[in-house]
């Protein structure tokens, strides 16, 4: 009999994936962390019952949360990642040789440990430019003496549980204060199809940043299928792609290229205003 892992979205819909083998299941100090081997998606990470990433389609998410910002920010020497414990976002950041320092602030050490162990291809854990700090990203942003960051990436869960405080104006203000001139804030901004959270994120970011540009792509692991990220800045231009950086990325990427970058920022009619 098929073993189904079923994500339940607000008791309104379910999305099921056939499991070949259950590999890890434990409650951390913050959330339930599970890894299983899926029939189609390969090793898959689930947090609090929500699909996070899979070996099969992780590139669709990680390349797109990283490279639009990294290919257009004024400088990319210093990159801060809040969340991102599976390592995929840091791996993509580290593909840029101009990056000198990446700090990943992840609240849950269990996520880092199990992804290193069971999904090692996701990360570039041995790169000496990467520092992993197991700490609360909100507390870090409020109290640190680090120099400003050229790019800040928020790679969190959905806005429930420990990730909830990462989706409000107070947090976005701390991000803006820590960004260097010409800097970019890139974040995952939920599905533009299923509910209003996408629109709430856009409205809140617009209170704080001069320019806010959502962009879109497919992530089959997420039940809505269509996903969004958002590029927020005061003084960078998401269309000003630095060719030298993009050329290097295109040599290894599976989805990102300059055409995909430009196309992702096309705003579908349904994303232009909240459904009534
Ligand atoms: N609905 C799931 C949203 C998950 C977003 N974060 C995924 C983390 C991948 N590094």
Give an overview of the whole structure.
The structure is a single chain. With 276 residues, this protein is α/β, with parallel strands linked by helices. The chain folds into two domains: 52 residues, Roll (Spermidine Synthase, Chain: A, domain 2), CATH 2.30.140.10; 215 residues, 3-Layer(aba) Sandwich (Rossmann fold), CATH 3.40.50. The chain contains eight helices and twelve strands. The strands form two sheets. It has a seven-stranded mixed β-sheet, with helices on both faces. Strand 9, helix 5 and strand 10 form a beta-alpha-beta unit. The radius of gyration is 18 Å and the shape is globular. It binds spermidine.
Instruction: Give the low-confidence spans.
Output: none
Structural class: alpha/beta
Termini distance?
43 Å
Spell out which ligands are present: spermidine
How many domains?
A: 2
Give the strand line-up of the largest sheet: 8-7-6-9-10-12-11
Percentage of residues in strands: 25-35%
Please tally the helical runs, counting DSSP H or I stretches of 4 or more residues: 8
Number of strands: 12
CATH homologous superfamily caption of the largest domain: Vaccinia Virus protein VP39
Compute the average pLDDT.
96
Portion of residues in helices? 25-40%
Rg computed from alpha carbons, rounded to a whole number of angstroms? 18 Å
Task: Give the H and E element order.
Answer: EEEEEHEHEHEHEHEHEEHH
CATH topology of the largest domain: Rossmann fold
**Largest sheet features:** 7 strands, mixed
**CATH class category of the largest domain:** Alpha Beta
